[in-house]
């Protein structure tokens, strides 16, 4: 990793904003806030990596918030439960549900946090709707783009991490994974869908291949995206994400020294 053991100079220390007590590190806030999103198909390890980034940023003193879509609000949790159980919605109806949950999460959590200078990490965002309801379910891409813009008030992530994997491999991981619903170790946002109620995970392979194709298409030539192969050790994926996140944070005024402790 690139973590060193340097002792901070006085200048670096003052850049780190020590609080009035003098010995307590004040949390790093960023003017205008930051939004980092995680995307990918089923079983790519997205939620684990989103949590890992969140804990790392918190440990560095970067004031952060972690949330999951759909979820993070009463409305969002209900949409999540509903979407996992129902098989009957049209792509547009599904899109509108996800957008409603998104608008609520934006209103309750994301907007206030970024206005407060926080770094918001989202486990899925607008690109999920494009990949799932658009590319995989055949919904109109331009309509989804418009609805995304309406639901978010045109908020575009500063960085989107795409964890990319062949769905054949990723789906095998899903069927083996422990029940995250009950997991004590899962300290991030809790999923409200019990195992066995994950509708998309049971869709045909072609559906998952279209999701992957959609994401790769979306990320092509767009510097907001950071595409990482998901079939590597978790710590390698985390290091690759941190490298990119660090650049983003430093570009937004977080002192380099913070990452060297
Ligand atoms: P996950 O948190 O396990 O990925 O579950 C969320 C599910 O909802 C996943 O199958 C992807 C799906 N989804 C969409 O289809 N469209 C969306 O816009 C979002 C946010 C999620």
Structure in a nutshell:
The chain has 261 residues and is of the alpha/beta class. The protein has helices at residues 10-15, 46-60, 74-85, 91-115, 126-136, 141-152, 167-176, 205-219, 234-251; strands at residues 34-40, 64-68, 119-123, 159-164, 225-229. The chain is built from 9 helices and 5 strands; from the N terminus they run αβαβααβααβααβα.
Radius of gyration: 19 Å
Secondary structure category: alpha/beta
User: Major sheet: size, sense and barrel closure?
Assistant: 5 strands, parallel
Q: Outline the low-pLDDT stretches.
A: 1-24, 179-187
**Count of DSSP E strands?**
5
Shape: globular
Mean pLDDT over the full residue set: 86
Spatial arrangement of strands, main beta sheet:
2-3-1-4-5
Number of continuous helical runs: 9
- Work out the strand percent: 5-15%
Task: Give the helix proportion (percent range).
Answer: 40-55%
Provide a descriptive summary of the structure in words:
The chain has 261 residues and is of the alpha/beta class. The protein is 48% helix and 11% strand. The chain has 9 helices and 5 strands, in the order αβαβααβααβααβα. A 5-stranded parallel beta sheet has the order 2-3-1-4-5, sandwiched between helices. Bound molecules: thymidine-5'-phosphate (TMP). Thymidine-5'-phosphate (TMP) binds next to helix 5.
């Amino acid at each position: 990793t690139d973590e060193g053991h340097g002792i901070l100079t006085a200048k670096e220390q003052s850049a780190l904003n020590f609080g009035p007590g003098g010995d307590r590190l004040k949390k790093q806030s960023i003017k205008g806030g930051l939004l980092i999103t995680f995307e990918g198909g089923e079983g790519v390890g997205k939620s684990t990596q989103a949590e890992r980034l969140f804990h790392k940023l918190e440990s560095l003193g970067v004031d952060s918030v972690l949330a999951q879509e759909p979820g993070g609000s009463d409305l969002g949790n209900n949409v999540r439960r509903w979407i996992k159980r129902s098989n009957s919605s049209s792509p547009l109806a599904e899109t509108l549900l996800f957008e409603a949950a998104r608008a609520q999460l934006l209103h309750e959590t994301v907007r206030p946090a970024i206005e407060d200078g926080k770094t918001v990490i989202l486990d899925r965002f607008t690109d999920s709707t494009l990949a799932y309801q658009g590319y995989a379910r055949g919904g109109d891409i331009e309509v989804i783009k418009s609805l995304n813009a309406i639901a978010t008030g045109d908020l575009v992530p500063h960085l989107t991490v795409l964890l990319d994997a062949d769905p054949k491999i990723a789906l095998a991981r899903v069927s083996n994974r422990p029940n995250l619903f009950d997991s004590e170790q899962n300290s991030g946002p809790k999923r409200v869908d019990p195992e066995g109620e994950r509708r998309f995970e049971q869709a045909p392979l072609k559906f998952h291949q279209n999701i992957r194709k959609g994401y790769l298409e979306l990320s092509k030539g767009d510097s907001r995206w950071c595409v990482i192969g998901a079939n590597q050790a978790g710590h390698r994926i985390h290091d690759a994400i941190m490298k990119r996140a660090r650049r983003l944070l430093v570009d937004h005024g977080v002192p380099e020294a913070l990452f060297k402790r």
